[in-house]
Amino acid sequence: MKKVLAVLAAAAVVCSGSALAQQNKTSKSTARSSSNKTLSMKDLDKNNDGYISKSEADASPALSAEFAQLDTNKDGRLSSSEFAKHK
User: Fold this and answer.
1) Contact at 8 Å (CB) between 82 and 71?
2) Read out DSSP for 27-85?
3) What pLDDT does residue 30 have?
4) Cβ-based neighbours of 80, under 8 Å, separated by 6 or more
5) What does pTM read for this prediction?
């Protein structure tokens, strides 16, 4: 009887470890999907003026990091042609 309980306990530990590993894997892929979401100019241009300001660009960490390089005419906002160069 003790042997059966020991086997069942070991099986429970193995199963719970697998479930936890799967849950962590799922959480990581969900977070990755969220952070890799591609935002369009329409998504970012919150005031619908046809440009993306620095504060609007901050909604996308990747765009925010590139903002100064993309703003080729240095007017403090991205036009659609400047935004199109964002990768």
Assistant:
1) yes
2) HHHHHHHHHTPPPPHHHH-TT-SSSEEHHHHTTSHHHHHHHHHH-TT-SSEE-HHHHTT
3) 27
4) 41, 50
5) 0.58
